UniProtKB/TrEMBL annotation:
Similarity comment: Belongs to the glycosyl hydrolase 29 family.
Top enzyme class: hydrolase
Example of a GO MF term: alpha-L-fucosidase activity
GO biological process: fucose metabolic process; glycoside catabolic process
Protein name: alpha-L-fucosidase
Length: 428
């Protein structure tokens, strides 16, 4: 099949990603695990220069700290993530309530985590790692065991391939890139391609700033039309690919007309950085997830395994806390498969999502004794019931004009977010 005709601002998906069967699971999943892992993980965020001074960065360390190519290659030769445990990672994701994993198959440094045949700059051919292991194959098997999906981040910007930077040689790079993408699809059947790097402002001018992104997206569709593709495939437009990708930020309002996914770090770095202790609190992270679902998006939350391949304990602890909030009182109903309520505005005391005839009001700031919570109705609908998940507590509901008032009779069930399920009957 030939790619659909297109013009500027066109969505090049083979169907409407907002409603397509192809994207249904992705739309309901709401929560995924991002994994940044590569040669940079071996440095664990610190490079000591020959003169003894120390430079700190994470997955950009080669660039930011100006590590000479030969030296970076020596680090790669030492890289031995022997404790990379795909089963443990998939279990951690599953227990957190994450339904897919997106791992850096290749970051900007060009290093492939799988045994690519395109070059030797990969974990099998250029490392101290067990030559019989393939961590992407291990992750594929483990995610399948746990019923979660596997996707790949792939940087189309490549610092390592000399042909990638000159328009005259770019075609040769692109052929290798296309061959690698085919390997990834043939070997691991990913559910998602999460491209990155089209925004590079390097000189000579970045070929991805022109129309190559459209061809890339069309190419992926020929490999497997079911793959969900993010929007960082070409020049910046709102809805190229299937999904928008706000980074380290949550849109302030419910978003309509576009699938989107906020990607975020648990601390301040994507790749592992041993000095980075800017950990977000479990409450903030869980509320982020709840608010993102209420605004119609997905949350792709990052972990950076260390040099040995282990997810830091601080990350595992936070993911566990999120998972235990989700299973408690079946509060996951407010997230998995839920989306923008449409019929009420987002309140300042929390977030509201909706699944069918149920509104889930997740309360971050519970009212004091005798106090109440109000919701602004955006359309006419009847309220049938209101109850606190996991509690017999009575919640009185009244309505006056466009204001719906909820008056709980007791205490919150937990201090991250207490969920009030509200049965509604919106007009057809
Ligand atoms: C990119 C990478 O450079 C980074 O290392 C990490 O992988 C992250 C997930 O993606 O960083 C970006 C990409 C896009 C923007 C900013 C940083 N952007 O759109 O502002």
């Amino acid at each position: 099949a030939s790619p659909p005709a297109s013009g500027p601002g066109t969505n090049h998906a083979i169907d409407d990603p907002l409603t397509s069967e192809r994207t249904r699971a992705w739309r309901e999943d709401r929560f995924g695990m991002f994994i940044h892992f590569g040669v940079y993980s071996h440095l664990e965020g610190e490079y000591t220069r020959p003169d003894g001074t120390v430079c700190r960065d994470a997955e950009w360390i080669k660039r930011q700290c100006r590590i000479p190519q030969a030296e970076y290659e020596r680090f790669a030769a030492e890289f031995n993530p022997a404790e990379f445990d795909a089963e443990a990672i998939a279990r951690t994701a599953k227990e957190a309530g994450q339904r897919y994993i997106v791992i850096t198959s290749k970051h900007h440094d060009g290093y492939a985590l799988w045994p690519t045949k395109v070059n030797r700059w990969n974990l099998r051919d250029h490392s101290s790692f067990d030559k019989n292991r393939d961590i992407l194959a291990e992750l594929k098997a483990a995610t399948e065991r746990h019923g979660i999906k596997l996707g790949f981040y792939y940087s189309i910007w490549d610092w390592n391939d000399p042909d990638a930077v000159h328009p005259s040689t770019f075609g040769r790079y692109k052929e290798r890139m296309y061959a690698q993408l085919k390997e990834l699809v043939d070997n691991y059947q990913p559910s998602v391609f999460w491209f990155d790097g089209e925004w590079s402002t390097d000189r000579p001018s970045n070929p991805w700033l022109t129309q190559d992104g459209e061809a890339l997206e069309a190419y992926v569709r020929t490999l497997d039309p079911k793959i969900v593709v993010n929007n960082r495939v070409g020049k910046r437009r709102l809805v190229d690919g299937d999904t928008g990708t706000p980074e380290q930020t949550i849109p302030a309002e419910p978003v309509s007309g576009q699938l989107w996914e906020s990607c975020m770090t648990l601390n301040g770095s994507w790749g592992y950085a041993k000095w980075d202790n800017r950990w977000k609190s479990p409450a903030d992270l869980t509320r982020n997830l709840i608010s993102i679902a209420g605004r119609g998006g997905n949350y792709l939350l990052n972990v950076g395994p260390d040099a040995r391949g282990r997810i830091p304990a601080e990350s595992v602890d936070r993911l566990r806390a999120m998972g235990s909030w989700l299973v408690r009182n079946r509060q996951a109903d407010a997230v998995h498969g839920a989306g923008t309520p449409g019929i009420v505005a987002e309140p300042d005391w929390g977030s509201v999502s909706r699944k069918g005839d149920t509104l889930y009001a997740s309360v971050y700031r519970w009212p004091g004794a005798g106090g109440s919570l109000t919701l602004k109705a955006l359309s006419g609908f009847d309220v049938r019931s209101a109850r606190v998940l996991g509690s017999t507590q009575r919640v009185a509901v009244s309505r006056s004009g466009d204001t719906v008032t909820l008056t709980p009779s007791g205490a919150p069930t937990n201090d991250i977010a207490t969920v009030i399920a509200i049965g509604v009957a919106p007009p057809a």
